[in-house]
What we know:
- Strand 26 (431-435) and strand 27 form a beta hairpin.
- This protein is of the alpha/beta class.
- The protein has 3 domains: 1-147, 2Fe-2S iron-sulphur cluster binding domain, sarcosine oxidase, alpha subunit, N-terminal domain (Ubiquitin-like (UB roll)); 152-273 and 401-461, FAD/NAD(P)-binding domain; 287-397, FAD/NAD(P)-binding domain (3-Layer(bba) Sandwich), CATH 3.50.50.
- The protein has helices spanning 23-29, 90-100, 108-111, 117-127, 139-144, 166-174, 193-200, 211-229, 290-299, 316-327, 344-352, 405-409, 453-461; strands at residues 6-10, 13-17, 36-37, 44-45, 58-61, 64-68, 79-81, 152-162, 179-182, 233-236, 240-245, 249-254, 257-268, 272-273, 287-288, 308-313, 331-336, 356-358, 362-369, 372-379, 388-390, 393-397, 401-402, 414-417, 422-425, 431-435, 441-445.
- The mean pLDDT is 90.
Amino acid sequence: xxxxxxxxxxxxxxxxxxxxxxxxxxxxxxxxxxxxxxxxxxxxxxxxxxxxxxxxxxxxxxxxxxxxxxxxxxxxxxxxxxxxxxxxxxxxxxxxxxxxxxxxxxxxxxxxxxxxxxxxxxxxxxxxxxxxxxxxxxxxxxxxxxxxxxxxxxxxxxxxxxxxxxxxxxxxxxxxxxxxxxxxxxxxxxxxxxxxxxxxxxxxxxxxxxxxxxxxxxxxxxxxxxxxxxxxxxxxxxxxxxxxxxxxxxxxxxxxxxxxxxxxxxxxxxxxxxxxxxxxxxxxxxxxxxxxxxxxxxxxxxxxxxxxxxxxxxxxxxxxxxxxxxxxxxxxxxxxxxxxxxxxxxxxxxxxxxxxxxxxxxxxxxxxxxxxxxxxxxxxxxxxxxxxxxxxxxxxxxxxxxxxxxxxxxxxxxxxxxxxxxxxxxxxxxxxxxxxxxxxxxxxxxxxxxxxxxxxxxxxxx
Length: 462
């Protein structure tokens, strides 16, 4: 790293980092992928979702426990440490539990050594240091912490749209009256826009033969420009919805603190979360979904040059991940599952760019070394062989899990539909309009309604 601008202390060791990186990305670039361990069996955890929806990156930062490393930017002198296995015996005990946990009854730590009281207290004192929940904040940290700011009132809006992707921008443009567009990204276009821009700028033009992705990129830029010019739309970038309260209130968080907004109509277009599938050891650090990759490789710019990356699955996200990885200098192995049906232009692009192509595979197991991913083992479904691909990262691309929590809190009637990814409106399709029991006009759109990126591309390329 040339002329580093920021030095942090990781468990007492100085590390040079690029300014603007998250702590998780900075540690990744220095080979530190195991950021924590699971509380129950001590399994290694790392940056998994990269957007604050999991607990894999909780670390002790500047004396404060349970801070999400994926959301915390580095700064000069920042002190970072893993917070689990605090006792000398902690890590050996975690290793033992990881290897023997399947032999132990569920919830054994609640059921064993409950009597007498003195024995129960001793047992809990022994096991607490390996739970990974962290010690209380350093006294200096909590004394220096400023009081939380009072929440701001953003007032009442005719429409509030949550999500700045293609579906959210379309809803904002179509809305009547004063409209607030909320998105956790700093710019419009959703979580794929930066990945598309980086891929388009890569050596060899990775998007050249991926026509639907090129059209998607153009569409996102077009809608973003229209939103910027729309007089009735006000953006709230880099803003997260913390909670939704019936009948019509949203609690928001941005760099300035908390705020509240109310609306006559809410459009929930918050997209989807990654699902990593079910195979042995699928939780190892280094296994990501496409949305996590877009953030780590785009927003955080982790160093991927020369690294072997397997991109498995099907659908447009798989091709976008491969194009993004190529643009960032990774060695791409494109493993297509049996349901994948790419067009010849896409296959020709893969061959032209030198990607290794493997077809008809399903992942069987992740193989680890030093706590993180080292290879992915497949089932070829034909002759019973189990081919392996060595890799530092595996990106698992399939149907996402619709983000439903806000819509549910507002009173939407949702059903569990595994074929559509999770909890979605009863009516199928990429959009649902209705009224909640409290009388709010609520729309659920895009991937949050169970649509896929492929569905969206069918619409924009039709």
